[in-house]
Amino acid sequence: MDILTGLVVWAAQATTLSLLLFVWWMRDRSQMFKLSWSVAFALLAGGLLLVGLRGQIATFLSVEIANTMLLASIGLLIGGMQQFDGKRIDPYIAIPALIWVGGMLLPFIREDFSARVILYNVAASIGFAMFIAIVLHIRSGRTWARRLLAGVLGIHIASSLTNAAMAALSVATSFSTMPSPAFVLLPGAFCFVAAVLTGAQMMTEQSEERLKALASTDPLTGILNRRGLINEFQARCTSVVPDKPLVALLHFDIDNFKQINDRYGHQAGDGVLVAFSRLASISLSPRGAFGRMGGEEFASVLRVADMVEAASIAEGLRMTLALQTLSAGEHRFGVTVSVGIALKPAAEADLDHLLSAADRALYAAKAAGRNCTAVEQGNAATIIPSAAMLTRHEMALEIHASEQVATLRRLSAVATS
């Protein structure tokens, strides 16, 4: 197979990939990396065809424009990789194409075949080196597919630099007069196929991760669902935290949620669930896992030093929510939450037992008038004293007090009783 035929076949493959990625992107426009890769493969196909038509079309098209398109495709592949990893495209992806354009402004490079070959391959090598850096940038996400892709790109760099060296040592005036014309095409074609296969594997891995996330995530609020919280519970129990020997389960139930739905509508009810989830995630996620158990019920699994710490965290969140004003259309209203807490040493913690104990404590908090916190202690629930009696102003002062000193003072009486 001659170089022209190989370029045409390569261009056809790139065109097919471009169309497939574009159709895939049209079905899910949230994944912009597919569009970037689609455009990249379209540029690759166009550049290869222009190179293959060298001698039949204007030199400006088959040299300057063609190689600019090929190097721009490398830049867009890099940009797509950044989007694949959830980042924005950086301007430096244009470096390979800009090196070529800048070099072609110099007559002694533009008019010399060997100089052009050297310039192109050096620019391509820089682009592939940038690609490797992006692929391996995520330390925790270095799957075997990423490592393999980095290896394939490394081979591409080696072949590009070899081509540059061959051009420097020879007096070739065209691809056909180079020492090994097939070497110009074969490594690139091999790396193209290998990169596509590893890229497909990476997308498969990403899809699997997304499915796992969907299986453990609540679609409305974006936080963990019951299944995800169960998985996190096991992780919290088995982790070694010497200064926090207890596992605490905090069970939250939004007060009078049915009345909110009936009075303001289900859209307002959903807004309450989302608002509470955001507030609780900010407060609890750094300390432990937080998720939605179902309906208006939520739970958090924490490692704590003692009951005072667990109750302090719950009281801080409860009082903060009580100070919020939510809106539904023209209506403004407040929302409160009741909390039940159960604790066990990490080595003895059983999720079903903790849930039952936290449910009993939550029931006691509801029976005590709602908008309060109860702790299960030896099959009996204890209400955190006086918190429900605070005025709005007093709650605000407690929330902003250093280390919640006032809250801890109230809790210490329960801890020692």
Automatic annotation (TrEMBL):
The keyword Membrane applies. It catalyses: 2 GTP = 3',3'-c-di-GMP + 2 diphosphate. Residues 245-378 form the GGDEF domain. Keywords: Membrane, Transmembrane, Transmembrane helix. The lineage of its organism: Bacteria, Pseudomonadati, Pseudomonadota, Alphaproteobacteria, Hyphomicrobiales. This is diguanylate cyclase. GO terms for molecular function: diguanylate cyclase activity. Pfam families: GGDEF (PF00990). NCBIfam families: GGDEF. InterPro entries: Diguanylate_Cyclase, GGDEF_dom, Nucleotide_cyclase, Rev_trsase/Diguanyl_cyclase. The chain crosses the membrane at residues 6-25, 32-51, 57-79, 91-109, 115-136, 148-169, 181-200. Its EC number is 2.7.7.65. It comes from Pseudorhizobium banfieldiae. It is an enzyme of class 2 (transferase).
